[in-house]
Write a structure and sequence with these properties.
Strand order of the largest sheet: 1-2-3
Radius of gyration: 16 Å
Number of helices: 7
Strand content: 5-15%
CATH architecture: Up-down Bundle
CATH topology: Four Helix Bundle (Hemerythrin (Met), subunit A)
Number of strands: 3
Oligomer: single chain
CATH superfamily: dinb family like domain
Shape: globular
Length: 193
Amino acid sequence: MNPLDVRRDLDALRALFGAIDTLLDLDPAVLSAVAPSVSGWSPEQHVAHVALANELVLRNLKSLAKGSGMLVVKGGEAHPRALELLAAGRLPRGEAEAPRMVRPPEKVERELLLQWLADGKRELASIDAAQLVASDMKIPHQILGPLDAPQWARFGAVHARHHLVIVLEVLRSIGVEKLPDLASLEAHTSSHR
């Protein structure tokens, strides 16, 4: 099992934002294509989902760093399998449905997506990893249960990577031969495997 390391997980999240920037340089027609054999979402829908989910992850991290917020609860245990998944750094495919608030729109508006991503990068840059410590202050995740700050940081990195791997599979499936070099993505997330 891999111990949680907030700094490493936030660095991984930064690298994942960089990987998304690289992916967005691809032809918009390619990014909006769907490969039903791989996923019901297009690459840009996966990116939109990651941007929306990261907005919540980062908001939760800020609330937990402050020790207060509308969703902060004291105590509670995460689902046992959740801790195993976070430690392993992998999420299973096709077992969960995205909550409505982070489901991507049918047609992703490019400017709105870019704004969501810019907002996420700005929020991530404002987070002080030293304030994100394990504690009994938690925020419930819809499926995983109550998570503390280090667990939310890990979830953000693991979840984003999960969807970017699917994006690459979709792109390969539709015949994109020249994919962006995401070596930095692998370098920053390989410790989660």
